[in-house]
Each structure stands twice: as C-alpha cells, then as structure tokens.
Amino acid sequence: MLSEEEISRLYRVRKTVMQMLSDRGYLVDDSEIEMTRSQFVQKYGEGMTREGLVILKPSRTNPSDQIFVFFPDDPKVGVKPITISTKRMADEGVRRAILVVQQGLTPFAKNCISEISSKFHVEYFLEAELLTNIKEHILVPQHQLLTPEEKKTLLQTYTVKDTQLPRILMNDPIARYYGLRRGQVVRIIRPSETAGQYITYRFVV
Amino acid sequence: MSDQSSQSQSLTNNWDSLQVEVAQYINSDVRVPLQYSENTKPLSGFVQRLKGKHGRFRGNLSGKRVEFTGRTVISPDPNLKINEVAVPILMAQILSYPERVSHHNIERLRQCVRNGPTKYPGAKFIKHPDGTEISLTSKVRHRHADDLKYGYIVCRHLQDGDIILFNRQPSLHRMSIMSHRARIMPWRTLRFNESVCNPYNADFDGDEMNMHVPQTEEARTEALMLMGVQNNLCTPKNGEILVASTQDFLTSSYLITRKDTFYDRASFSLICSYMGDAMDPIDLPTPALVKPVELWTGKQLFSILLRPHAKMRVYVNLTVAEKNYGKSGETMCPKDGFVYIRNSELISGQLGKATLGNGSKDGLYSVLLRDYSAHAAATCMNRLAKLSARWIGNHGFSIGINDVQPGIVLNKEKKVTIDKGYGQCIDYIGSYKSGSLDLLPGCNNAETLEANITGTLNNIRERTANVCMNNLHWRNSPLIMSQCGSKGSPINIAQMVACVGQQSVGGRRAPNGFVDRTLPHFEREAKDPDAKGFVQNSFYTGLSATEFFFHTMGGREGLVDTAVKTADTGYMARRLMKALEDLSVHYDGTVRNASVCIVQFVYGGDAMDPGQMEEKSGLPLNFERLFMKAKATCPAVEQKSLSIEEIDKTMDEIIGDRLSESTGTPEGESSQAFSASSNKEGGMETFDNSLRKFIQKKYPNSDLMLKLNGKEHPDEDKGYLEKIASNICGVTRQQLMVFLETCISRYSLKKIEGGTAIGAIGAHSIGEPGTQMTLKTFHFAGVASMNVTLGVPRIKEIINAAKKINTPIITTALQSDNNEIIAKIVKGRIEKTLLEQVAKSIKTSQASRSASIVITLDMTKIQGAHLSVDAYTVKESILKTKRMKLKEQQVKVLDHRKLEIVMHADKKKLQFELHGLKNKISKVVVKGIDTVERAIILNEAKEKDPSANKKMKLLVEGTGLLSVMGIEGVEGRKTTSNHIIEVQHTLGIEAARKKIIDEIQYTMSSHGMTIDIRHMMLLADLMTFKGEVLGITRYGVQKMKDSVLMLASFERTSDHLFNASAHGKVDKIEGVSECIIMGIPVQIGTGMLKVRQSVKPIELTYGPDPIIS
Amino acid sequence: MVETLFEDIFRVDELDPDGKKFDRVSRISARSEQFDMLMFLDINTEIYPMRTGDKFMMVLASTLNLDGTPDSGYFAPGNKKSLADKFDYVMQGKLYRISEESREKQVKADIFVSFGGLLMQLKGDPSIAARFELDQKLFILIRKV
C-alpha cells in the first residue's frame, strides 16, 4: 500500500520518464505526458504498486527498437530484480531498459548491469532525480543529438578531431537524461547575452 | 664469523648511506632516517635547483635577465605628451640602440661616434657587417667616425623619439607595460604625464619604474603598434578609458568651467596660449558677454581646447551627468551638473571626473577615441594637461585648517542628531533587555539589536555628513576635490569636519577584548554606542582615548586585510594566467588552446572585442549617443524630415543591403544546413534587430506632430508646425543614413582580430580587479541574517571549483509564490527539524530488564510551524535514521502524538545505552532535508506597496539542491544553488557553466566592478570544456594541459618531470610557457603566421634613388 | 532697421529660484508682457545687477550689424555702429535645443540657448519657436525700462 505522498512522487517520476522517452525519440502519446494526477490514480487504481507501472515503448523511427522502464519495489535494488527484468527483456526481445530505483543499487547490482551490458543496455535513475525534469530547468539550455552525417560535417567545417571538441561526460545528468553514448556529439543551443543565441557542440566521453 | 657479520653490517650501513647521499643529491628535502642525517651541511639537490620561484624553471627559464634596461624613481611632468617618457641623460648614455648606417643618418651617426660614450649624444660601439665590434672609448674613434660606411651598425646613445618599453610592477594587466617615446632630459628621474598614472597604477611617493629598449626595428615597430600608449587608452577589461585626466587636471577643469569664471581679452588669450605653448593657431571666439564689457567664459575656453581652430574637424557630441547633477532639468540643472557638448562647443555643465576622468564610457576622451582617433584623444589630453598645470599654478590651490573647521550650524545640528541617535539606541537596548524587541526575519534577539543599532549609528554619520556638506563654502578645497572627483569622498570630508562614525572590525562593531566588554573604561555587557566603537568626534576636534583605540582597531584590520589579500590575489592571478595563457582566437573565429582543442566556437558568442565595446552594459555601440551625434553634425538645412514610413524604408534599404552582402560570401552558401557561420551571423542578426528597435523608439513622436496629423489646419499654420516638429524630433534622410552607416561600419570594425591572445587578456581582466577588492567579505542576500561570501574569498571558491563552500545558498522558487502560508508549509518541508524541536517531552523509564523512552509531541508547535508530523511519521524517520539499530517492533505508536521505544539489554548496560539512545533520538530529523541548515522566506515585491502581489521565494542555507528541487510545492525548474559543483552534479555541465558566469558577475558587480561578460564566458568555458568543472588549481590545470614543461613551470615541478621521464612523454612545444622556456616565438598574435614563400633577398641600394632609371 | 527675431518686455519674478549657487552669476526667472513667455536666464550680476521686480526689454537677434548682414562668426571688435549701442547688456550664444511640453492640450515650445555656459530657457507659444533654427547664433540684448 502506497501513501498519498508516494503516489504523488510516482506520478511526478512517471511524467518525467514519459517526457524523457519522448525526448529520446520513443513513441509516447501526448496524453500520457499530460496525464493529471487524478487520471494517474484512476489508471493504476487502488492497489498501486511500483512494479505495476512498468512501461514499454517503441522507437519512433524503428518500431522494433523498444525500451522498458522498470520500477522495482525494493528500496535498495539487488541482483534479483535485475535478473527478473533481463529475463523479461530477453522474452520480449528488448535490448534497452531503464531502472527507476528508490534509494540506489547494491554494488553487486551495478556489477551485474555492467556484466550484461554487451547484451542489454540498462540504465538506472534514482526517483529523486526524476521528480523534476532537469531538461526544463532555467539553467539548462537545449541539447540536440547530432546524426553521424552531421557530426562529420561539423568536424570538417572546423577541421578538428572529435576529441578536440568540448566534452560532456557520459554520467552528466543531461547526458543520462538523453541516454547518450560515447562518441556521439550533441549540439547545444544556449541563449546568449551577447549574441541572442549561441550554438556549441559537445563530444560525449 | 662475527667478523663477517660486522663486515656485512658495515656494508649495509654504507649501502644505506650511499642511498641517502644519492637521494639527497637529487632531492635534498627527501626524508632521511635519523642516523644518516648527522651532517647538516646545507646542500641543495637537483630538485631544489629546479623548483620554486627562484628555481631554474620560474627564475631562469620563464623569466630571464635582460640587457638594455633601466630603473629609477618616477616623477610627474605635465608638459610631456602622454606617450612620452623623460629619460635622464645619465641613463641615455648607458642604454644604446644599434642603428644601421644609411644615407640618411650617416652624418648624425658620425657625430655620435666622434662624441664617444661619455658625451651625449654619443655612441658606445661600432659593429661591422663581418661581426667585429669596436669599442669607442679610445681616442681612435675619430678615425672610426671618418671610416663609417653604409651598412655598419652604430650602438648610439638613446635619443629623443626612440621607442622604449615602460613598466611598473606588479604587472597585473597588459597596460602595465606600454611603449613610449623617449625624451632625453637632465636630472635623475623618469618622468611622464600624470594622465598615464592610471594604467601603471603609479603615484610619485617614491615609486620606481623600469624601462627597456627594444633593439631591432621589428621589435620597435611591434612595440609601437601593439603596446603604444595611444593604442592602449582603453582597457580590454570592459572598454572603459584608462588613460585620462587625473587629480589636478580635474580640479582645474572643474574650476575653469564654473559658471561664474569670466576672463577679459588679455587673460583669455593668455590662457589659450597655455594649452599649446602658444604655438598652435587659435580662432578667438566671440565673447559670451559683448556689453557692457567684453568677457569670455571658462566654458568657451574649453570649447577652444576641444577645437582650437576652424580647420580642425573634430565635432564632439556628448551628454554626461556629473556627480552634482540634480537629477532633473538636464542642461538647466541649477548646480550646472549636466555636461552637454554639442559640435565641440561646451553648452553647459561643470566638467569633472565623469567627463574627463578614467573609468567611464561616455566621457570626453572615450567619445574622441571612438568617434575620431586615439590621436585626437591624446592631443586633447596633452592640451588639457598643459592648460591645467599652468592655470592651477597661477590660480593656486591649497588646503588649510580653516577648510575643516565646522560652522556653528553644523555643531548645533550634530549635537541634536547625535543625542537623538543615542536616545534611540538606548531605547533599543532597553527593549532588548526586557525582551520586547521586534525581531527581524531570521534574526535572534541579539542580532536584531545589533542590526538596529548599526542602522541608527550609520544614520547619524550620514545625517551629519549631509549637513556638513551643505554648509561648506564652495571655495572649500576638500569640497571642490570631492565634487569634481579628483580626490576624496564626502565621507572623508565629513570625517574631518563633522563626525568619524562607527568603527568596525570584521563587519561588526568593536568586539570584546576584555571580559564582556571592549575596554575597561566601560561597564560589563555595555552595548551603548560609545562602548562599542562609535566615534562622535571629528578628526578636527580630536578623538578621545577610547575612540582613538577603536579607530586603530578598524585601521589595523584594513592593513592586515590588504597585506593578506595581495598574496592571495597574486597567486590567483598567476593560476589564472597559467590556465588561460594559450587560448587565442583563430582565424575561423574559434577560441582554441595550444593543442587546438576548441574552447569556444565563437568568442563571447558574438566575436566582439571587449575592449571596444562602447555601451555601458557591454553592447557594441551606444546608439543613443551616435544618433545624437548624427543629428548634431548633419544640420537639417532645407531638408525635410522623414515620416515613419520613409524611415522604415530607408532602414530596410541600408540594413538589407548589408545582409545580402554578407550572405553572398562563399562560406555562407557552402555550409547552409549546418553552417559554421550560423553563430557569427547570429551576432550580426541580433545587432541588426537591436538597431531596428532603436530606430523604432526614435520615431517622431512629438505632440505637435500628432496635432499636425490629426486635424485640419490652415496652410500657413501647418508650415510652422511642421518646422517646429522637425526641429524637435525630426530625422532627415541624410541624418538617418549617416547614423545607420556609422553604426554598421563601426560594428564590423569591432570584431575581434584573429590571433588575439584573448585568454591572457581574460586572465588579466579577472585577476586585476581582484587586487582592488576591498574588505567587504560579506553581504546580505536580501535578508539581514543571510550572508553570502563575497570578495576575493568568493572569487577563489568559484575559480577553484571548491567542493565545500562557505555559504551555500539554494534560491528556491515556489509553485505559488503569492501565498505566505504555502510558503511557510514548504519552508517546513525543507528546513531540518529535529525531534527535540517538536517534542514536548522525551521521558525515560526503566524496569529491571527493560527500559523505554516515551516521546510526546507538541502538536500546537507542529501545527504552528505548518509541519505535517505525527507519531507515525516520527516512527518512520526514526527507523530510517542510520546507526540507530532499532527494530520496527521496538518502536510503538501509542496514539498520534505519543510513541514509545522499548529496549532490551543487560542490566549493566541498560542505563548507559538508554541515555545514549535518548541523545540520539532527540537528534533524529523528523522533517526536512538534513543537509539544510535553515530556510528564510523572502518577499521580493516592494515592501512599501502592500497592495502589490507578493512574490515569495525561499532562501535555503545549505546544500542538497536535488532534494530541494524534489520537495512538493517547490518550482524545481527555477531553483538554483550558488554551489557550482552541486549544480554540475544535479543539472549538468552546461548549467554549471552558466552558474560560473553568473556567480563571478554577481561577486564583481557587488563590489562595483564591471567586467565584460565575454571574459567570464571564456573562463567558464575553459573550466567546463573537459566535461567536468575543473578548478584553476594544480589539479584542474593538470587535466586541461598536455605539456609537461608548462606544468613543470607551474607547480610541483619535480613530480611532473619524474613522471614525464618515467613515461617517456613528448612535449610538442606549442603553448606559451613552453615556447618561452625554449626561447622560440609563441604561436599567438603576430607569431601565429609564417611566410612559406621563399623570397630572393632584396638588394638594398643605399644612396638616393636614381631620378631616371 | 535690422530684423530681430524676438522682442518683448519682461519683468523679473524671482532671482535664483533654486537658491544661489554662484557668486557672480544669478539665474532670473522672468515673464513677458506681450507674448506671455516664461524665461530663465543666467546673468552676470556682478557687472549687470538685477533685482526682483525689474522690468527690462529683451531682444533676440541673429546679428548685431545694423544693415542686417549675417554675422560672420568671427569676432571683429571695432567702433562700428551696431545694434548693441542701444542696449546695456549683450550676450552672444548658440541655440542648442528646441523642445516641447504639453499640459492639458496646451502645447508649449521651449528654446534653449547657451551663452558660453550662461543658459537661457524661453518657454511660450510654438509659433514663436518657429522663427528659430537649431545651431543658430543668437545675440541677446537687454535694456532696463
């Protein structure tokens, strides 16, 4: 049984997750993002559990590319929920998943994720990180992922190697939000006091 | 057997001591076991030779001793031009310049050779093309003089007009070394125009300065073009003018331009002749007063100074509000504080620092420099220097005891004010003791008292100061100096004449040095003004013993602070310089470091040169002034003013033309979808838009015009109305064209040049103001009790990217910011509340085998603070708390306000553990975030206006941005922290970058310093371009740079060298430090380009060119 | 006779309305009889004292030459006959600003002249302002009546 407070938390987390999936290019219906709290309570009913919130969304461009979002029940997630999740992923042929955990992962669980990383790409977020959508924060400018062609043109225009571009870490909150991988380049469009708008790029390492 | 063992014993001993010797040979600081360190001879190992300020790297490789230098005491000379330095003959005879003999100079050099090294102007050596060098000390020099041939090099004495570099330590910015022209003069000091004191930060109380003589034509040219005083009138820090009139020049200008200075023909002509040594042609204007007597005013004198004769085509147009401007009436200001110069004619205003001094952007010299040339500004400064020095020499200006004697009115007024203020303070103390003081938000009783008393006492000083200033005669010298801005402030005068005021130590009133009191002269716990360091005497009346002591306390703090701060800022400047030295603008507009990694794609976002920005806030142009100039310089003779539609049309034509030009370039087309130039054009587009917006603001909007358009008018009426309207606010086509064209052409000239060492400039621009920051280390962040670190300590925190900062504050926005109750609820959710704060009682009871703690909650208190806490939530928080070791069964909820904790343990331990548990329990956080200290509600709306909507936000002291953002009721998207590392961890690298800029800017601006935002952008970009926030410290710099030599010359020399040799590192010698160490030209600025074409050596023919070839 | 740009008789209302700031110069505020103009004028009271209630005739002209030839701009003193002969106090200056002020549908025009730093503000009906041009050289001639 979840308390009112927790329902509110989960509602906010779920909303951010939906926005995040949409921003990453997965097919998410607007109604799911705009869902109000009462609709949320209605949908998942009285006996709401975290496990029940599980989300599966296909990519907008390639419907076979799907992503799972799991909400494990345990406050501190160990290896067991991960193996269950990966089993489910394997069953449904999904390669990517996001774990939304309450307090964190045990060190074993972290190991486990990196071990299976060749087969399944599993990311994890803390609930606290998803309460507010940091992408919408006033300090955070707009980020866009470049396609490989765009990246090539960029490097040619400035005659640089990708390592000579400014960088963004893979564990940067924004990079995690977009699920960026090493070697990708993001375009960042900042509002600028001097020029109105300023475009910069960052190479993900 | 024993022999053998003793042998091996001695062998190991010797082996060890050999080890020690070798280790010490390399590093004498190495820790040595005690038995080997008997011989305490002071040896210095290799490492010691290399490291430290006087080691090889910093002492001999990064900075080297040079020849052709001089150093002596400096003194002022207003008769010199601003780009001249008077060099003593003695010095000129030692310093020499190798001049190549040619057709043009052979006779002069021959004479020099004949004069020899001891007679000025002479020569020291002759160098032949084959390399032989002949000293000219002997008498044979006459023969050498006769034998002088083209192509020989004569090392002659320094002569008038030679280029020298002039420098004063500490060299904090690039204007600390500038190139001047030498003037050889008798006597023994180096002299220069006082106007140039500012960039060097020099005064003449015994300062010494250095000079260097560049030895090749190439070096001279570069020095002249890049380092000449005329090319460095502005600081690249923010584009303000730095070389400008100071001190006496301001005083005399102020006195000359007083409204009631009149001169008759003789004296007016004489003063006119002062400004150009009577050598310049001057057109005498019509006297302002024609009848009954011909009289010229001082303002006319200044019009002549700006434009001596009609052939001079300098038309200055500017308006400046001086210090004593009465805030209304513009030119008609009764105190004459509004300076208006129209077409080089001084219309109104008494000139002072705002117009003539440094640190302004729309002063006279700035305008001359921007609208005309550096030369125009420089000659104007020269003229003013000569005029002022001579005028004030005749006029006389001095200060005496009668200047600081208070009048009767002041004495009376002062007594009344002080009595009243003291009465108020005693009232405050009374209510403090009885506990009936109205508490200020977030303060306790004592803090409120302090705040109130400090406020009252400061008020006393201010009021007496005002009375004092109002009652001084206008001829009072300190008053004149403070009003024109040459020296001293109203506070200084008030301290001399009226009242010295409160002395403070560390931002508080004088602390208690004795038990509960400041000095034994006062009672214990005395809080009254006198006992806590309020000085009611003035310097004129003299301080009492206790007052004097308090004054020295304040004075000492100032001294200590400056001493400590110089070391701090010096080190900070060095680190900044090392981190930023290799950043330069490349020809594709990007800012890159030595290993060509991109730091910024376009410098500052718009590729503008910060040193050339004309607008106060850092925008490229001051449209308002340029528009005024265009209107004043193009009189609307016979031209009709344009209607709104016509203006729009002209504007579109001109701006449109330019846009088509810029997109016509090949690069614009080639990179359409993904243009590298999109950034560059972005800047241009913003500029165009701002230009359009400005013009739209300037549409004719006269009421007469409206009347004209609105109603039918008889024809003759219409004619005159139109004429007036156009005189008031009309714009002719020519004026508009001139305005737009100057704006556009000037904008494109303000682009930063390729090769600029913008990193070094940025480091200077941030490092130099640090030295000027005074001891204002704290500041109230809106509420009296909430302090933020400021000044050098804060800058240090930001630049070091410190993990732990002094005053972390999370500025929290609320989802509904107009409801006080909701604000309080949210505050309760955030603020850390301990169990002991909400518990009515925590009781222990003990039986033989078990014990229990019963906690009763204080529900009235809980509801009062809008907390949602009851026994159930308390139970949860107890169980959540780490290291409590309680099981769920042990905590029992009795009812919603009571709970019981049961313990089972040994009888022996029970008592002990019970108390331990009780202590722990009382510290359990029942509500809020445990990293937060406290939160304060801040109402941003104007307090005077109660009807206005409230605008609440919370200031949260402490860390935990992520948790605060997640609290319900908090607008997480607008909540920020001043802790940069935390921002990086919760919001990402880009947010951290923005925060670095904001925080530096906030700190600088709260000290009244303006720094162009582009410098801070560059610093922030450098700190974040590796993906994580790197501090400008040894750790951060190590991650930013690749070069071993650079790192070795920075800090921890030996570690870097050992490491590099162990790993076989390669240094490509690309950066600035490496190049300096290796003694090769740096790849920045003029060294960025190399000519790759082989050119046949040109054969120079000496002698006159043949007339017919 | 030479064309003058403006002529009227003024009465001094007040001396130094904002308090005395300068030893030798006072600002007078005066009102005209004929055109109901309001004038502020800085006058060198050391050589030409003024008192409240004084009446004086004020003329604005663009030249002092009696034949009306425009002023050359250069100052050439001499014993030529000029317009100034009939007046006690003459100043020369430049018109630097024309502005307007509207109050209750009444539009008033101001002209501002600087006589080498001694300022004049003349407020009145716009039709009078129409006679003046920006940057015009002006002479102010005063005679007490």
TrEMBL record, chain A:
Pfam families: RNA_pol_Rpb5_C, RNA_pol_Rpb5_N. Its main location: nucleus. One of its GO terms (cellular component) is RNA polymerase I complex. One of its GO terms (biological process) is tRNA transcription by RNA polymerase III. Transmembrane segments: none annotated. It is found in: Nucleus. GO terms for molecular function: DNA binding; DNA-directed RNA polymerase activity. It comes from the Eukaryota. Belongs to the archaeal Rpo5/eukaryotic RPB5 RNA polymerase subunit family. This is RNA polymerase subunit H/Rpb5 C-terminal domain-containing protein. It comes from Erythranthe guttata (Yellow monkey flower).
TrEMBL record, chain B:
The keyword Nucleus applies. The keyword Zinc applies. It catalyses: RNA(n) + a ribonucleoside 5'-triphosphate = RNA(n+1) + diphosphate. SUPFAM superfamilies: beta and beta-prime subunits of DNA dependent RNA-polymerase (SSF64484). Gene3D superfamilies: 1.10.132.30, 1.10.150.390, 2.40.40.20, 6.10.250.2940, 6.20.50.80, RNA polymerase ii, RNA polymerase Rpb1, domain 3. DNA-dependent RNA polymerase catalyzes the transcription of DNA into RNA using the four ribonucleoside triphosphates as substrates. Largest and catalytic core component of RNA polymerase III which synthesizes small RNAs, such as 5S rRNA and tRNAs. Forms the polymerase active center together with the second largest subunit. A single-stranded DNA template strand of the promoter is positioned within the central active site cleft of Pol III. PANTHER family: DNA-DIRECTED RNA POLYMERASE SUBUNIT BETA' N-TERMINAL SECTION. This is DNA-directed RNA polymerase subunit. It comes from Erythranthe guttata.
From TrEMBL, chain C:
Belongs to the eukaryotic RPB8 RNA polymerase subunit family. It comes from Erythranthe guttata. It is found in: Nucleus. GO terms for cellular component: RNA polymerase I complex; RNA polymerase II, core complex; RNA polymerase III complex; RNA polymerase V complex. The keyword Cell membrane does not apply. Pfam families: RNA_pol_Rpb8 (PF03870). GO terms for biological process: DNA-templated transcription. PANTHER family: DNA-DIRECTED RNA POLYMERASES I, II, AND III SUBUNIT RPABC3. This is DNA-directed RNA polymerases I, II, and III subunit RPABC3. Its main location: nucleus. SUPFAM superfamilies: Nucleic acid-binding proteins. SMART domains: RPOL8c (SM00658). InterPro entries: NA-bd_OB-fold (IPR012340), RPABC3 (IPR005570). One of its GO terms (molecular function) is DNA-directed RNA polymerase activity. Keywords: Nucleus.
